[in-house]
Amino acid sequence: MRPDDRRYMDTHEWALIEDDVATIGISDFAVEQLTDLVFVDLPQAGDSLSKGDTLGEIESVKAVSDLYSPLSGEIIEVNESIADNLELVSQDPFGEGWFVKIRISDSSEFDQMISAAEYEKVIEEAAH
Amino acid sequence: MAVDCSLLELSRNPALRLYSWDPPGLSIGHFQDASEPWPPEALKVKAQMVRRPTGGGAILHLREEFTFSLILPRQDTHRAPPTKLYRQVGEAISRAAAELGVSLLFRGTGDDRREDPFLCFERTSCWDLVDSTGAKAAGFAARKNRYSTLVHGSISPHTGLTHHHLVPIAPQAFSDVFQISWRSCDLDSGELDFARILQKLPLERRRQKRKTEDF
Predict the structure, then answer these.
(1) B114, A127: Cβ pair inside 8 Å?
(2) Chain A, window 23-42: residues with a beta carbon less than 8 angstroms from a chain B beta carbon
(3) Which domains, ranges and CATH numbers included, belong to chain B?
(4) Domain with A23 in it
(5) Is residue A111 in some structural domain?
(6) Would you list the DSSP string of A71-92?
(7) Does B172 touch chain A (CB under 8 A)?
(8) pTM higher than the cut 0.95
(9) Which residues on chain B are in Cβ contact (under 8 Å) with A38?
């Protein structure tokens, strides 16, 4: 079971809310699918994003995948430590491997994301 | 590349594009530095540079080269890691090559690393197809977004397999492996308009912050 203190997207991003700040990352399932991560490109602090915008890009085994923002708001912090150490994402996607922190502008968007239990179903259905 | 990006964003059906290069092109991987020194052969043939949406290393595409783009809807690839797609694509190319009497096999060993050589065909990956001498014969790279997966593939002309040889054979080989029946068609107006917009973007990589519908 994945952490149920946060909510998920069917595109495998997660968001953890503390006050009006959301920490964003990708799930262990996404990491497993991407396999060996070689490069990540993230936005800068101060950038504004709308829900569904491209948050960044990640490359693995010659495959570039888009990352999506599950929430709208302003980026207030980027996890600079993962740029040169993508093992943080591979080894701890729900902790040290977070991507960005966003000061959210619409908390109702968080409610529109899916729970850990619902995300499990998304993955199970994808497998069949 | 603009057409491939447009199909990746807008097409909800599988698509297979087969193309050659005139003039010759130097395609660089999505994250590669466009200011890297060009290989002498690219200068000699006066190649034009283009940035791929897919990953991997740079490829010099000569006029006779066989290149393809395969676009598959997300539901078909949702759970599949890129490596599974490379295996399927490699199988299709191997089948087509075998019909022309050329044996291509997966290398089976090798890693893609961030500090790899600039050129794709100087890199080694276990998903490369190699010829009977062990030389890299084909390279693949992919791009995934929320809608689809795009796989680019390039077959080195040194194999003797050219665009002219493979175009009549490759679609059936892809049909057999992916269980898809192809029909010839043009881009619809939306795909064409979006490709024209993308074509005007500069070579330097630009993060697409806006959603497709904003264009």
Answers:
(1) no
(2) 32-36, 38-39, 41
(3) 2-199 (3.30.930.10)
(4) 7-104
(5) no
(6) S-EEEEEE-GGGTS-THHHHH-
(7) no
(8) no
(9) 55, 112-114
